[in-house]
Amino acid sequence: xxxxxxxxxxxxxxxxxxxxxxxxxxxxxxxxxxxxxxxxxxxxxxxxxxxxxxxxxxxxxxxxxxxxxxxxxxxxxxxxxxxxxxxxxxxxxxxxxxxxxxxxxxxxxxxxxxxxxxxxxxxxxxxxxxxxxxxxxxxxxxxxxxxxxxxxxxxxxxxxxxxxxxxxxxxxxxxxxxxxxxxxxxxxxxxxxxxxxxxxxxxxxxx
Length: 207
What we know:
It is a single chain. The chain has helices spanning about 1-45, 70-85, 90-105, 110-120, 120-130; strands at about 50-55, 55-60, 130-145, 150-160, 165-180, 190-205. The protein is of the alpha+beta class. The strands form 2 sheets. The protein has a 4-stranded antiparallel β-sheet, with helices on one face. Mean pLDDT is about 85; it is low at about 55-65.
């Protein structure tokens, strides 16, 4: 009888030990799943942008991977530079404001063009002759297969005078580097080695 009681106690101990091991394994699995779920959730949240609407409501604006927008941002960065740098009105303050904003988007290569034109009196002639110069970017070709990205821009310039309108073909090339985003550089790119490949008159229309 004693032997049978000892056997029952040993069997019960094995069952308790098996249940304890199973419980520990189950707790480990639940903990691991919880940690994995938390990490996945945190990664997804980092890929989203939240926008405050008048400081009141919180709106989910974008839920896709931000890197997908880089080609679009790159073309818009280059387009914006050309609009600021080549759009001139017969107003010294307006010219300086546009040039200053454009130079935040490019390195000193654009500044050298600006100083050269200034020394040659180009901006003074724009003001004295009451010329409005505008630019229309036709296309921006970016090579994203290698870094820094090579960008070629094709645009048309219009110089509007009281007597005529002169149209010019404008082709430029630069390299595009990833940079830090800021209020002055919202797309986070910097243009370098900016070069004007072509800037020639196409036609003059009498008014």
